[in-house]
Amino acid sequence: MKSDRTFFWRKLHSISGLIPIGVFLFVHFAINYTAFYGAETYNQAAAMMGNLPFRYAMEIGIIFIPLLFHGIYGIYIAREAKNNISAYKYEKNWYFYFQRVSGILVFLFLVWHVGTTRVPAAFGAEVNFDMVASLVANPVYLFFYIVGILMTTYHFSNGFRTMLITWGITVNRKSQNFGKVIGVILFVVLSGIGLTAIFAFVA
Hints:
This protein is mainly α. It is built from nine helices and no strands.
């Protein structure tokens, strides 16, 4: 049945935002945060990730394919969404609306981010402190990063909250309120880490 297939794909889309995409987000933020301790520390962390065995296979299988699935199916969900914040000004309706908007912005940000870092790296450029510092030296690019970080942390944090509901982990109002608190904490902590990291590259 169509409803069963839709339910399956929605659950797969939901869990893909946590595993493996969420795991990659934590690792990526952790590596970027090493810039807070200086260029040498960041370069060592970036070099360690760049020298992992089977790196390209892992990037394709663990990062790019899940990201493409999550992003493309997320856009499909956004196009199918019927919520109307002008008519229904409920809190959950706003969460739903911003989840779709942030998802589209994150997808566009990632395309730009890959184009300015991974693509040059594929042609021999070294992904190091100086590369990122040269990007954020442009105020427009720095703004892109700030917005991209905040949209990413919101999308992940709110997505974690809705994943708990989708998978039947938080089933009543009390547990769902607890899930919302966890989401808010995740957003604040991850945003703080992400913004601290990106400003560490600013001269």
